[in-house]
Amino acid sequence: MINEKAPLPDDVLAKLPGTETVLGHAVAVDGERWRRALSDRGLPAIAGKLAGAGRTTVTRQEVFNLGDQDPTVENAFQLLYYSLAWGLGTRASRLHQRLDGLAKHQDTAGELLVSAWTSVRNGAPTTDAYSLLTTKRGAGRIPWFGPAFSTKLLYFAQGSVTKPRHLILDQVVSRNLRQDAWPQAPTAGWWPETYQRYCTLLTRWAAQASEHSTVQRTVRADEIELALFRRHRPTT
Predict the structure, then answer these.
(1) CA 144 to CA 115: how far, in whole Å?
(2) How far apart are CA 228 and CA 223, in angstroms?
(3) CB burial string 158-183: b at 16+ within 10 A, e below
(4) 155: Cβ–Cβ under 8 A, 6 or more apart, which residues?
(5) Residues 6+ apart with CB under 8 A from 183
(6) What is the sign, positive or negative, of the torsion defined by CA atoms of 14, 58, 87, 151?
(7) Interior CA angle at 150 toward 33 and 166, to 5°?
(8) In 3-state terms, what secondary structure has residue 216?
(9) pLDDT above 80: residue 234
(10) pTM score > 0.85 for this model?
């Protein structure tokens, strides 16, 4: 169980990345690999910078910009592709299995993605939007599209205008929360209520950081998420 009243860790406070760093957080992506894999499965082609030749990088800001668009099926697939590409990087582990599952359930996936995006756009509680993509036990409703990637899609679906309420949760972040607020944190399969508590905790920590004498600015909740993701990472 997440302790929503746990104090903000000093080391996280000391390493807040700032909004510019969060939005500029870039990941290398092999666009050619994505284009081939999508074409082989008859899935909608990827658009934008990943439709070009060679490797490139994708930033959080660029994926947020896709979240600013209207939540149509066509746009939802692009948001999904870029969320996945940003999350997977050049290694793109199990990309073929993920896209196989998407191709086999393309119509259902499109409906689920649009519903979740619309829910986020309408300001629905985190549990409601998350539950559209995952079961009560935290399994993905789209094959090979599990809870970690569900949180990424919900995060980017908020777009670039509003402050993020739906936050990324993955095995690295959950593991790095064990010492402070989540002693028995699992690394996969988070229940909707668990995800809601996680978002509440990080939002509260962001508010505490904003009021701290050493900060004196508005801290976004995704700054906390990125600081947790980078926590304990070697500095050399």
Answers:
(1) 19
(2) 9
(3) bbbeeebbbbbbbebbbbbbeebbbe
(4) 83, 164, 166, 167, 168, 222
(5) none
(6) positive
(7) 125
(8) coil
(9) no
(10) yes
From the CB of residue 146, how many other CB atoms can be counted at a distance below 10 Å?
A: 20
In the Cβ-directed half-sphere of 188, how many Cα atoms lie within 13 Å? 6
- 14 Cβ neighbours under 8 A, 6+ residues apart: none
Quote the pLDDT of residue 236: 40
Sign (positive or negative) of CA dihedral 95, 97, 98, 101: positive
- Residues paired with residue 142 on neighbouring β-strands, in sequence order: 145
Q: What angle do CA 87, 232, 181 make, to 5 degrees?
A: 85
The number of CA neighbours under 13 Å toward the Cβ of 162 is 16
Question: How many other CB atoms are found less than 10 A from the CB of residue 207?
Answer: 13
State how far the Cα of 24 lies from the Cα of 29, in Å rounded to an integer: 15
Record the tokens describing residue 233, joined without a space.
């990472």
79 contacts 67 by C-beta, under 8 angstroms: yes
Q: Tokens at residue 235, please?
A: 């500095």
pLDDT in tens, 165-203: 999 999 999 999 999 999 999 988 899 999 999 999 999
Give the tens place of pLDDT for each residue, 145-171: 999 999 999 999 999 999 999 999 999
